[in-house]
Write a structure and sequence with these properties.
By secondary structure, the chain is mainly alpha-helical. It has one domain (2-405): Amino acid/polyamine transporter I, CATH 1.20.1740.10. It has 17 helices and no strands. It has helices at residues 2-16, 21-34, 39-63, 67-75, 77-110, 114-131, 134-144, 150-157, 162-167, 181-195, 198-210, 218-247, 257-302, 317-334, 340-366, 369-372, 379-405. α15 packs antiparallel against α17. It is globular.
């Protein structure tokens, strides 16, 4: 019975933490600009994150090795420290965007000053992460973040042409009345990166060790990664459908979180607005927790020091200092006046540049029969893993040029 509960909670928390502010932004904008045309990207990205999440979780269960220990062992200290700095800069930008998103929601609820709400959001995160054990952090933010499923209800309520939507699952070029190929390519890269964000792997891998997974938990890992991320992918598709039906007809570009809320309130009224408000708050709050903790995980794992919420804060001082610093510095960035949506777009595009250096060591180790024994990648996982790694490298090479050429997708 405990295993069944663990499995159910794992699937729900994976779903609740899947959609952060990056996915909200890119999914709704993709629907608003290209209708259903980019649904295939969500399928591709979801398979990729489930694939690498399962590998990272399997390594954590079998070898007790988290992501950044794997990266350090593969690249060596001098090269891996560059990956560490780049990864944590992306974490910091993402954390700043998530805290900014929380502050906007609080501002909408209480009507208070934005910077005051930033301080409130940061204080809430600091206290929550400090007090709650790891499993309760997963459950509180993950389960409450499930209220984002209101967008799936909204998508159905809007009555899409399901045959037309199904055609979006097959890769094809945008129509003549849509933005050009360069902007299309930018949103392909942005959507893929928002789904494959490296912090998800850092957190998932470390979480498996925090939850004391062993080889007996490999089935739970496989189903959690597969079903949890798949459900998250379906929610992302729902966001694209909402963008296509609510914003595309009016030529509206949902650049603000208030626009995102409109996507639920148009078909579902005030109830949809309120549930979406809660969903966004807990989803971006959960992502802020994940990015902050990932900063602590990465640094402590890199230097071979004790880490994790299973220890008291004074027993893991560097880990504790790093996750607290991520929240404080993220709040400072958000307080600079930058739009959280713009911050997250930069963080998502820069994140894809880090992806190859995160995924390659994990793929190599999961592929090693000497290290993994009978838990080595199956032939299918091996082929898919290398195919996705090639795709990730292509996307990483295109990310920055597309960001510059399209002015962040604005044309």
């Amino acid at each position: 019975m405990s295993n069944v509960m663990e499995l159910a909670l794992g699937i729900m928390t994976a779903l609740g933490g899947f959609v952060d502010i990056g996915e909200l932004v890119f999914a709704l904008e993709a629907g608003a600009k290209f209708g259903y045309t980019l649904l295939w990207v969500v399928v591709a990205g979801t398979v990729g994150i489930a694939l690498f999440g399962e590998m990272a979780g399997r390594i954590a269960a079998v070898l007790k090795k988290p992501a950044f220990e794997i990266i350090r062992d593969h690249f060596g200290f001098n090269k891996a420290i560059v990956v560490l700095v780049a990864s944590n800069l992306v974490n910091l930008l993402t954390c700043a965007a998530e805290i900014g998103g929380m502050a906007i929601i609080l501002q909408l609820v209480f009507g208070a000053n934005y910077r005051l709400m930033l301080v409130a959001a940061a204080g809430l995160l600091l206290v929550t992460v400090f007090v709650l054990p790891f499993r309760w952090l997963e459950r509180v933010f993950g389960l409450l973040g499930l209220t984002l499923l209101v967008y799936a209800v909204a998508a159905v309520q809007l009555g899409p042409d399901w045959a037309d939507a199904a055609r979006g699952l097959v890769p094809h070029l945008p129509g003549p009345d849509m933005p050009g190929l360069d902007i299309y390519a930018y949103y392909v890269v942005g959507l893929l990166s928002s789904i494959l964000m490296p912090y998800e792997i850092y957190f998932y891998s470390s979480g498996g060790i925090e939850d004391e997974w062993t080889p007996k938990d490999l089935l739970i890992n496989k189903i959690t990664a597969g079903a949890g991320f798949a459900l998250g992918g379906l929610l992302t598709m729902a966001l694209i459908v909402v963008g296509a039906l609510v914003f595309l007809p009016g030529g509206i570009d949902p650049q603000r979180l208030s626009s995102v809320l409109m996507g639920a309130s148009v078909p579902l009224g005030k109830a949809g607005f309120l549930v979406a408000l809660a969903g966004i708050f807990f989803a971006v709050g959960g992502a802020a927790v994940e990015t902050a903790l990932s900063a602590g995980y990465n640094v402590a794992q890199f230097f071979g020091l004790a880490w994790g919420k299973r220890h008291k804060p004074r027993e893991v001082p560097l880990f504790t200092l790093c996750w607290m610093a991520a929240i404080v510095l993220g709040t400072a960035i958000a307080a600079s006046g930058a739009n959280p949506v713009e911050i997250v777009e930069y963080s998502v595009i820069f994140a894809v540049v880090v992806l190859p250096f995160t995924y390659y060591p994990i793929l190599r180790l999961a592929d090693s029969r000497q290290a993994m024994g009978r838990h080595v990648n199956s032939p299918l996982i091996r082929v898919l893993g290398w195919a996705y790694f090639v795709l990730i490298c292509i996307v990483a090479a295109a990310a920055i040029p597309l960001l510059v050429a399209t002015h962040m997708g604005r044309g």
